[in-house]
UniProtKB/TrEMBL annotation:
Key word Transcription present: no
Top-level taxonomy: Eukaryota, Metazoa, Chordata, Craniata, Vertebrata
A Pfam family: Ras
Name of the protein in its database record: Ras-related protein Rab-13
GO molecular function, one term: GTP binding
GO cellular component: plasma membrane; recycling endosome membrane
Similarity section: Belongs to the small GTPase superfamily. Rab family.
Gene name tied to this protein: RAB10
Single Gene Ontology BP annotation: protein transport
Transmembrane segments: none
Keywords in alphabetical order: Cell membrane, GTP-binding, Lipoprotein, Membrane, Nucleotide-binding, Prenylation, Protein transport, Transport
Chief site of localization: membrane
Entry membrane topology: Lipid-anchor
Length: 204
């Protein structure tokens, strides 16, 4: 049988208020570009990037909202099968920070229990327009025991680091599952939650 060009497939999601820079972060990470023109109207579903980590080829399918966040109509189908979530606010926009709790309720309601998530305070290149101090982002992250980065899609700060650390945390969980599972089939039984990973092959 032909070898798949990857060992694992992870579905990741970007969530957060409209305008915080989700699409920009996605383009920065997957294509290393930043463009200010009408990026939010593109309306893509997801982008793919394959990375290599600890000797495993990991295909990332990263989903971006196509404006549904404006109407709070992000539902279970968007979250289905997701293993990682990047919850984004904009450090220059207080509303986007105040919406974190709303997004958390949304994640709680729709995502799997074991989903790995992190908090990103984007647009950290705009220090002069900052409204949310770093300490506030840190506090939320500490409350939930998750990672936190301030990022800039524009200046390319912490974008790759954030994505890669999220992937690394997910991979750590999976490798623990692998050790526990005496895995004979080529599917890694991740977290015993059948909705959790939809396509997770181990070709090692
Ligand atoms: N200064 C700055 N502007 C950004 C950054 N990321 C996104 N933007 C701008 O913020 C606006 C909204 O970005 P977009 O990616 O469409 O946000 P989305 O609605 O969350 O997908 C656009 O004008 C972007 O150019 C950033 O890191 N720094
Ligand atoms: Mg967008």
């Amino acid at each position: 049988m032909a070898r798949k060009p990857y060992d694992l497939l992870f579905k990741l999601l970007l969530v957060g208020n409209s305008g915080v820079g989700k699409t920009s972060l996605l383009f920065r990470f997957t294509e290393d570009v930043f463009t200010t023109t009408f990026i939010s109207t593109i309306g893509i579903d997801f982008k793919i990037k394959t990375i290599e980590l600890h000797g495993k080829k990991i295909k990332l399918q990263i989903w971006d909202t196509a404006g549904q966040e404006r109407f709070h109509t992000i539902t279970t189908s968007y979250y289905r099968g997701a293993v990682g979530i990047l919850l984004v606010y904009d450090i220059t926009n207080g509303d986007s920070f105040n919406s974190i709790s709303m997004w958390l309720r949304n994640i709680d309601q729709h995502a799997g229990n074991d989903v790995e998530w992190m908090l990103l305070g984007n647009k950290c290149d705009m220090e002069s327009k900052r409204i949310i101090p770093t300490s506030q982002g840190k506090q939320v992250a500490e409350q939930h025991g998750i990672r936190f980065y301030e990022t800039s899609a524009r200046a390319n700060i912490n974008v790759e680091k954030a994505f890669l650390n999220l992937v690394e945390d997910i991979l750590d969980k999976i490798l623990m599952g692998e050790i526990n599972s005496l895995n004979r089939s080529f599917v890694i039984p991740v977290f015993k939650n059948k909705n959790f990973i939809v396509d997770c092959y181990n070709h090692v």
